[in-house]
Amino acid sequence: MYFRKNIGWMTVMFFCLVPVLMWLVMSPLAYRFFNLNTALTSFGQIFGLLGITLFSINLILSNRLMFFDRFFWGLNNLYNHHRAIGSISFSLLLFHPLLLVIKYLAISTQSAALFFWPFGNLPGVNFGIFALFLMMVLIVITFYAGLAYQNWKLTHKFMVATFILAVLHAFYITSDISRNNFLRFYIFGIAIIGLAAGFYQAFLSRYINRNFIYKIKQVTRLNNEIIEIKAYSKARTIKFVPGQFVFVSFISEAVSGELHPFSISSSPHVSEFEIVVKSLGDFTKKIKNLKPGDVMFLEGPYGKFSFQGILQKNQIWLAGGVGITPYLSMARSLEDSGFSIDLYYCTGNKEEAVYLDELQKIALAKINFRMVSWCSSENGRINAKTVYRMSGGLAGKAILLCGPASFMKDLKEQFLKLNVKRNNIYSEEFKFI
Amino acid sequence: MKKLTTISLFIFWMALTATLAAGLIFFQNNKSPANGASQNPSAQNPGVNVAADTILNLTEIARHNTPADCWLLISNKVYNVTSYLGSHPGGAGTIIPYCGADATLAFATKDIGRPHSSGAAALLTNYYIGDLNQTTTQQQIQQNVQNTKSVPMPGGGGRNGEEFEDD
Fold this sequence. Notes:
The complex is a heterodimer of chains A (433) and B (167). With 433 residues, chain A is an alpha/beta fold.
């Protein structure tokens, strides 16, 4: 299980290790590290080499390929990896010039200062300076500006331009890349794939990835915030595992055509497709204005969050608010195949528990499915000890978490304190920025 | 990971600001390069008759084949580049394999088919100690070697691009 979950990371490490090993053997280490000056320069070089490799890999990983979804144990994990790899790559690239400038400092502070001055160097070096500063702007926007998802996504597309500059830098200068054929072709190959992948994801994917075309049949306001959309397809229907999610874009006067991820709430066994949307941001607030007949494109399905495929048949499902949606799909499609499920439907108050009636009916009809409704306005926030008591212990049970970030984080910590193994807790944390 | 980014950004800007500020403040000072510590020439090779005739041939050059004592033969001229190794933009590692040997082709092509700049060629002349097969004395050689150790470091004022490459 550990291996399956981490094989994505391991593969990334492998692709980073190849150029490093090549670099280590292509020139005797005694020459690279024979004094402090050359050692620092050597670290600067290897940082640059690793940085551009990770940058390439990250552009490749920016693609929402089905294969990546499986390989990286869910798209949410893939995005977490993307964030981590991006941060590491950026930090390495920041230190790359800092380590290289030290040999100029040994000569004079003036030559060191000129090294950082754009336009002051050879074109190859200038490309690097521009790439680094553009990257810096984009990373600062990503981590600190707090832009709305769509606006951020627009800025992030410029990473492709950054990458082009970085690649020009890598190939324009005289370096280990130019001195060693293997390194040259390796970096060139991975960079070309990265560039193609990044370009595709940034500019083409939304036109090509429209795999499934659905028409909206019904838009229902379940309460002030929660809207249920039912749709059907006359063409190819999407096949998914309950618990998975899709990226959706609408063709409608009501909303813009952006892509947004939503959990599928319908059962895979029925032809009617359903998503449930909570009005949170600018985009989702307009969802209620969608009309029957509007078209929606689906891209997916993605995600690893499902009761199927978990070894333990005794499971505890914890839903926080609109986090009920993947469980809806699961409960609706649950068959008597040895599973025993306790679903905790946790909401702020009774009005928010819009699917309570339907789930209670399922609980009555299916003996292997129990449901607990929990309102924090009446009982306070749910905690792991309560779950432990109400479900009669946690031994040998899998725990699934879906809801707001704090809901998942707090419960996860509490369950870990109750000696539940980390591997037995399943959740799908989503963090795009 | 956000923390890593924040720390890296902080260090980067600190270093960048410090470097740029120092470059500006010490602009004048850089015009008079610091000289290397001078050594007594005769102390270097005790037991050698420094006044005797000697020939600057391949055998003699080949004796200086370490990073600590590195001579190069380039276009039939002999250079002592020991003090320059650490400053080479391509890294010392690209020169060291040629220490004590003929580096004419390597210098002409940088091993990758691109020539060095004219600035680099000018820089090289500072490290000249004699012609191949020139008859001279140990004393003269040591004097010339000594001179190369106090070569003004590149980059103080004039810039020739070559030394500002990435590696």
